Sequence to fold (151 residues):
Amino acid sequence: MSLGPAGASLNPEQAENFEDMEKQFAVKAVQHMTTYWAILEKMKGSQLRLTKIDDEIYDHFRRDFPEFDPTQTIDEDKMKSKEGKERWRNFMMAYEKKIDDYNFGTMLRANPKFEYGEKETIFAMRMQFYAIEIARNRQGLNDWVYEQAHA
Fold:
């Protein structure tokens, strides 16, 4: 399958709906989601490091999003508004050369009190996942998953 001339960049706003690419994305996103959940069942989130630079990501996230409360349900409309997208884009670009797949799509629980589910899960970029889940883990908000798995 050709996506255009060699060396040309793909503009996602003008790209056609590539069914195979969507299926590959879906498989990868589900794998990431199930792997993360399995890790939370085996280890308390408060003891988990998601990247080698968790401290840097956490400090940057708290500085750029001081109003974010990890205990609350994410306001997806606010996060995906024009202003929200711009703030997140600026945040994520700092990790372009530091985190593999920093802008790859993944699944994120809207609220740390619930498991992944159709109504509890939102589509997010990898760096949004890292920033939010690192903040949740620092506050022990995901420890219940481990405790429930070992009850």
